[in-house]
TrEMBL record:
<dbReference type="Pfam" id="PF00482">
    <property type="entry name" value="T2SSF"/>
</dbReference>
<protein>
    <submittedName>
        <fullName>Tight adherence protein B</fullName>
    </submittedName>
</protein>
<keyword id="KW-0472">Membrane</keyword>
<feature type="domain" description="Type II secretion system protein GspF">
    <location>
        <begin position="18"/>
        <end position="137"/>
    </location>
</feature>
<feature type="transmembrane region" description="Helical">
    <location>
        <begin position="273"/>
        <end position="298"/>
    </location>
</feature>
<feature type="transmembrane region" description="Helical">
    <location>
        <begin position="113"/>
        <end position="137"/>
    </location>
</feature>
<feature type="transmembrane region" description="Helical">
    <location>
        <begin position="149"/>
        <end position="172"/>
    </location>
</feature>
<dbReference type="InterPro" id="IPR018076">
    <property type="entry name" value="T2SS_GspF_dom"/>
</dbReference>
<keyword id="KW-1003">Cell membrane</keyword>
<keyword id="KW-1133">Transmembrane helix</keyword>
<keyword id="KW-0812">Transmembrane</keyword>
C-alpha cells in the first residue's frame, strides 16, 4: 500500500512546483527560487547542486537516489518539464503551473485509490487474525489448546498446516493488493511535456524531439503515447487550432482514465480478497483454532474416564 500512502507526499511535490512557478512568475531567478524553498532535504540537495554549477534538470535527476521510490516519477517529470522549457525557450512559470496542476490531479487520484482500497485491505487484515482468536477462545474456556498445538503430534501437524495456509494467504493478499495499485504514476506526461514544448514557438517536430530527449535524460523512456501525441499534432495542423490546448486536454483525459481504471481495480480487489479468505484463512482457522480445541476436549474427556 505504499503508493496510496504516498499521495500526500506527491501533493507536497506539487506544492513545491507551484511555489517555484509563483517565484519565477514574480521575477525571481531560477537559481534563487530553489534556494528560497530549500527547507526540505530534496529541494536543499537540488539547490546545492545548482549552486555547484549543475543545470537544474540534471540537479533534480542527481538528487533522485535520496528521494522515496514513489516520489521519483514526480521529480523525474519535473526535471523533464524543466529541461523541455529551457530547451525550447518556453516560459518556465506557466509551464510549472501546468505541471503542478498535473501533479495535483494525480495526487487526488491516488487519494481516491487509497480510500477505495482501505476497506478491502482492512477486511483482509482483520480475518488474518481469526486463527489467533480461535486459540484464545479455547484457552479462555479452560482448555490447553496451546499445549496441544505445540506438544502433541496431531497438534504439530495442525500447526504446520495452519502456518503454511496463513503464509500462503498473506502472500496471496499482498499480490492482489499490489496488482490493484496503479502502474503508471505519470499518466498524460508526454502530452503535458509536448504542450510545454509547443508554447516555445518553435516547429512541432522540434518540440516532439525535445520531449523525447527530455524523457530519455530523466529516465522516463518507458513513457508512451508517442502515437497519441502525433495524432493530436496532426489534428492541430488540419484544424488550424492551437496544439497546446489539445495536448493538455489529452493529458487530462489520460489522468481521468488512469483514475477510473485504478478505481475499477480497487472495486474488483474487494471480491478477489475473498479467495484467500475462503481457501486459506478459514481452513487455517479450523486447524489452528478449532482442531486443537477438539483435541483438548477429547484428551481431557478420555483422561477423566
Amino acid at each position: 500500500m505504499n503508493r496510496a500512502r504516498d499521495a500526500p507526499r506527491l501533493a507536497g511535490v506539487a506544492s513545491t512546483v507551484q511555489r517555484l512557478a509563483v517565484l519565477l512568475g514574480a521575477g525571481v531567478p531560477p537559481t534563487s527560487a530553489w534556494r528560497y524553498l530549500a527547507q526540505s532535504p530534496t529541494v536543499a540537495g537540488v539547490d546545492a547542486a545548482i549552486r555547484g554549477g549543475m543545470p537544474v534538470a540534471e540537479a533534480i535527476v542527481a538528487q533522485l537516489p535520496e528521494v522515496a521510490d514513489d516520489e521519483r516519477p514526480a521529480w523525474r517529470g519535473l526535471a523533464a518539464a524543466w529541461w523541455v522549457a529551457a530547451d525550447v525557450g518556453a516560459p518556465l512559470a506557466p509551464s510549472l503551473r501546468e505541471f503542478a496542476v498535473s501533479l495535483r490531479s494525480l495526487s487526488e487520484a491516488q487519494r481516491e485509490i487509497a480510500v477505495a482500497l482501505s476497506a478491502p485491505v482492512a477486511t483482509a487484515r482483520l480475518v488474518m487474525a481469526l486463527p489467533a482468536v480461535g486459540l484464545l477462545f479455547g484457552f479462555s474456556l479452560g482448555f490447553d489448546t496451546l499445549g496441544v498445538l505445540f506438544t502433541t503430534v496431531p497438534g504439530l501437524a495442525c500447526l504446520a498446516i495452519g502456518v503454511t495456509l496463513m503464509l500462503a494467504a498473506l502472500a496471496w493478499n499482498r499480490r492482489l493488493v499490489a496488482a490493484a495499485q496503479p502502474r503508471d504514476l505519470t499518466p498524460g506526461l508526454r502530452f503535458e511535456l509536448t504542450a510545454i514544448a509547443v508554447t516555445g514557438g518553435g516547429a512541432l517536430d522540434r518540440a516532439v524531439a525535445s520531449v523525447s530527449e527530455a524523457l530519455r535524460r530523466c529516465g522516463l523512456d518507458a513513457v508512451g503515447d508517442e502515437a497519441g501525441v502525433e495524432a493530436v499534432l496532426d489534428l492541430s495542423r488540419r484544424a488550424g487550432v492551437p496544439a497546446a490546448e489539445l495536448l493538455r486536454s489529452e493529458a487530462e483525459e489520460g489522468r481521468r482514465s488512469a483514475r477510473a481504471e485504478a478505481a475499477a481495480h480497487a472495486s474488483v480487489l474487494a471480491v478477489r480478497l475473498m479467495l484467500p479468505l475462503g481457501l486459506c484463512v478459514l481452513p487455517a482457522f479450523m486447524v489452528l483454532g478449532v482442531a486443537p480445541l477438539l483435541i483438548a476436549v477429547v484428551t481431557s474427556t478420555v483422561s477423566g474416564m
